[in-house]
Design a protein that fits this description.
Helices cover about 35% and strands about 20% of the residues. Strand 11, helix 8 and strand 12 form a beta-alpha-beta unit. The protein is an alpha/beta fold. Bound molecules: zinc ion.
């Protein structure tokens, strides 16, 4: 890889974001396309991906392209097996793109790519073992042990959100009950706030004309910043459950650091302080071990792109 540029691509259900990433992990030029959707022929999604890559690269030759895909990628890194917001099912994306782009292509899911980026350049840099927990509407994640991303037999390791934490608890989109992401996620934050605002006064009532169904995640965040008790209690609960789930992961895997990414992590210590308390309170042997640092991710929405580039850089 002595000439040409390396491009990382993050493809999700709404957009394709491609960026030229330099040797220091900086994104120096980006291009984006709208994702064509879930009900189109697969080649249209690949067209959008190829266009975004070529647009980002400009006139520079391609040394390699790494794709971070929002979906399940097989353990070999060849195929997207399934993606909830994309039409791919078993799509041999690596080979298809290598044919079309004429350069080496790497492929992994977006959470693993984000973890690679945080481990090299972000909050987990220097750590040989780290867990990344991505909190959006649900919970995703990645396991990095002894310098390697653990992908699992099916490429499905790191789906932390569907670990059961409450027997017969809240129903989950996966069809089961009591999954962790039902208690600690953007959706859980909103559900907490909706339930609490009917019990006690809250600015959320003013923001929604008293209709709990109209509460959104960003509303809860801004209400918490204003000091609203309902919003703050909602964050405290989500943070507490975050720490409880992380303690289970730490008991199993003993990482040096746990990095919390995704949209909800923008709340920072409002989320992380109750999580750290719960981690110390519930982790096995906490008094006799170094409890891992629980840190906010540093690279934000570019992490997938940067980690994609690391697949081939
Ligand atoms: Zn579930």
């Amino acid at each position: 890889m002595n000439e040409g540029v390396v491009v990382g691509v993050d493809i999700g259900g709404t957009k394709v974001l491609a960026g030229v990433v330099d040797d220091a992990g900086r994104v120096v030029r980006t291009a984006r396309r709208t994702t064509p959707g879930r009900r189109v022929v697969t080649s249209r999604v690949e067209d959008a991906l190829v266009e975004a890559v070529l647009d980002a690269a400009g006139s520079a030759p391609l040394a390699g392209v790494g794709v971070a895909a929002a979906g399940f990628v097989d353990s070999a890194g060849d195929r997207v097996m399934f993606a909830p917001h994309l039409p791919w099912q078993g799509e041999p994306l690596k080979d298809l793109l290598e044919d079309r782009l004429g350069c080496p292509v790497g492929l992994d899911n977006d959470a693993n790519c984000a973890a690679r980026a945080e481990a090299r350049y972000g909050a987990a840099r220097g750590a040989a073992s780290a867990l990344m927990v991505t909190m959006g509407t649900g919970i995703g994640g990645s396991v990095l042990l002894e310098g390697r991303v653990v992908r699992g037999a099916n490429g499905m390791a790191g789906e932390f959100g569907h670990m059961q934490v409450v027997p017969d608890g809240q129903p989950c989109e996966c069809g089961r009950r009591g999954c962790w992401e039902q208690y600690s996620s953007g959706n859980a934050l909103v559900r907490n706030a909706r339930a609490l605002m009917v019990e006690q006064p809250s600015v959320l009532a003013d923001m929604t004309d008293g209709n709990p169904d109209r509460v959104t995640g960003p509303m809860v965040t801004s209400a918490a910043e204003e000091g609203d008790l309902v919003a703050r209690r909602s964050f405290a609960s989500v943070g507490d459950w975050l720490g409880v789930g992380v303690a289970n992961l730490v008991a199993a895997l003993d990482p040096e650091v746990v990095v919390i990414g995704g949209g909800v992590s923008a709340a920072g210590d409002r989320l992380l302080e109750p999580a750290r308390d719960a981690l110390r309170r519930t982790l096995v042997g906490a008094a006799h071990r170094r409890v891992p640092d629980l840190l906010a991710a540093e690279l934000g929405p570019q992490a997938g792109m940067i980690g994609g580039a690391l697949l081939v850089g």
